[in-house]
Q: What sequence folds into this?
């Protein structure tokens, strides 16, 4: 940390230079803090995404197994393979529609949060 003359010893030019240097250091420190926080958030999100992908894979395996079992059961229940397959297909499209609506809502909320974070960063730089 630089030392500056104080009181009567410092000229106006020296004080302005000191203020400029301190201001620059403050902005650099704020940017470094934002960068560190963002890096930590991204790292945490990446780990969470990997875990979600693994959970999704196991969920998909379970879902396919359950659909096969449901199709076999419905085929025996209705004595018609076509009707059992139709019921399974309708169930699939309903689930896909619900998941689509949930994902769309979450993405809209995420983009609003990202805009607010960007606005905060602009305020810090100003």
A:
């Amino acid at each position: 940390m630089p030392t500056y003359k104080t009181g009567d010893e410092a000229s106006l030019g020296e004080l302005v230079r000191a203020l400029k240097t301190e201001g620059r250091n403050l902005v650099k420190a704020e940017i470094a803090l934002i960068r560190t926080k963002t890096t930590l958030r991204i790292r945490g999100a990446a780990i969470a995404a990997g875990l979600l992908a693994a959970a999704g894979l196991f969920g998909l395996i379970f879902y396919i197994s359950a659909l096969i079992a449901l199709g076999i059961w419905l085929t025996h229940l209705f004595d018609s393979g076509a009707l059992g397959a139709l019921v399974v297909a309708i169930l699939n499209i309903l689930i896909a529609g619900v998941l689509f609506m949930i994902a769309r809502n979450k993405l809209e909320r995420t983009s609003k949060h990202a805009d607010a974070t960007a606005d905060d960063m602009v305020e810090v730089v100003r």
About this structure: The longest helix spans residues 12-78. The helical segments are 12-78, 81-125.
